[in-house]
Specification:
CATH superfamily of the largest domain: Hypothetical protein af1432
Distance between the termini: 43 Å
Radius of gyration: 21 Å
CATH architecture of the largest domain: Orthogonal Bundle
Strand order of the largest sheet: 1-2
CATH class of the largest domain: Mainly Alpha
CATH topology of the largest domain: Hypothetical protein af1432
Strand content: under 5%
Length: 337
């Protein structure tokens, strides 16, 4: 899109990147960041409670000294430090829960609530399906609908276009493509790349509605369905089953997830350091965490028991554990499994 259309698109991106932040979340973040010796683990959940804060902190970390590729909130906090986080949010526009007026009206709070619900569902799905990089997945879940704001800026009738009651997410997406020639998921991926997150995270946002979505994209797509279901919205049962099957979840697990959410609110541990384990070592360790013996793990992984034993001895050495119980505890505490 060139000329005036390109200028309008650039203006819409800039407006969305200045999306207002919940005042309560910003104030809590500043208070926490000013505490002595505060950790990224303490700061990150506050940032992840708000879409605007997540964007501001990720953009700040990725623009620092020309860096790119920071895709999780804990990593962004580690990069900026508490003072850098405070500086990044110093000039943001805020809105109040009791006075939702302003240019965006009620949109910021509605989007924040849905984003947080989707993040929480994604946390649980990642736990059930043993997905890695859960802090990155959290960001994809928080930003999965961010592209809607660009379409709202570009097309004055956008909110009316998809406002019909009873429409599922898939049906709204088809309307966007038919009427606008683009959809919010694709625009959201572009936005994610603009703030510097890794390509695979942006792809998860782009493809969370795709029928052949895999991995993080399928998890975000299923998490969105779960969040909509909990809110009483129309959802696609077939879409939920398809994504759950892709992620290796059994029908009973999907039913339990839909039944329990949003009542199960256990927060995931944040990984504050890179995982030193290989994919094979992580798989073997997950088997231990599930109470399996070497032979069972070997059968599932298509390896010999001696190879599994070697993988697990490497795990113990890398995490500084003396036995299987300690290795599992360390990995869970650091958010690796």
């Amino acid at each position: 899109m060139g000329g005036r259309g390109g200028a309008r698109l650039a203006s819409a991106f800039e407006a969305v990147e200045q999306f207002p932040v919940l005042a309560e979340a910003r104030n809590r973040l500043v208070r926490m960041a000013r505490k002595p010796n505060v950790s990224a683990t303490a700061i990150a959940p506050i940032i992840e409670s708000d879409v605007g804060l997540t964007v501001v902190v990720l953009r700040g970390a990725n623009s620092e000294r020309g860096r790119r590729g920071i895709g999780s909130v804990p990593a962004a906090v580690e990069s900026l430090g508490p003072d850098g986080v405070t500086a990044a949010v110093a000039e943001v526009t805020t809105y109040d829960l009791l006075e939702p007026e302003g240019h965006w009206g009620a949109v910021p709070e509605a989007m924040r609530r849905h984003a947080v619900a989707t993040r929480m569902a994604a946390d649980r799905i990642a736990e059930l399906s043993n997905l890695p990089a859960r802090d990155d997945l959290a960001v994809a879940a928080i930003l999965h609908d961010f592209g809607r704001l660009v379409l709202l800026c570009l097309y004055g009738e956008y909110s009316k276009l998809t406002a019909e009651p009873g429409l599922s997410s898939e049906e709204r997406l088809r309307i966007e493509r038919r009427e606008l020639g683009i959809d919010h998921a694709l625009v959201g991926g572009v936005l994610a790349r603009r703030i510097g997150v890794p390509s695979e995270l942006a792809s998860a946002i782009e493809r969370h509605h795709a029928v052949d979505a895999q991995g993080a994209a399928a998890a975000v797509g299923l998490a969105e369905i779960v969040a909509h279901h909990a809110n009483g919205d129309e959802v696609s049962a077939e879409g939920a089953r398809r994504r759950a099957e892709t992620l290796g979840l059994k029908p009973a697990q999907l039913r339990s997830l839909l039944y329990e959410f949003p009542y199960s609110t256990t927060e995931r541990p944040h990984a504050t350091e890179p995982c030193p384990l290989s994919a094979r070592e992580l798989d073997a360790l997950r088997g231990l965490a599930e109470g399996k013996v070497y032979k069972e793990i070997a059968t599932e992984m298509g390896l010999s028991a001696s190879t599994v034993r070697t993988h697990l001895h490497n795990v113990y050495r890398k995490v500084g554990a003396s036995d299987r119980a300690q290795a599992v505890l360390v990995a869970r505490d650091r958010g690796w499994i």
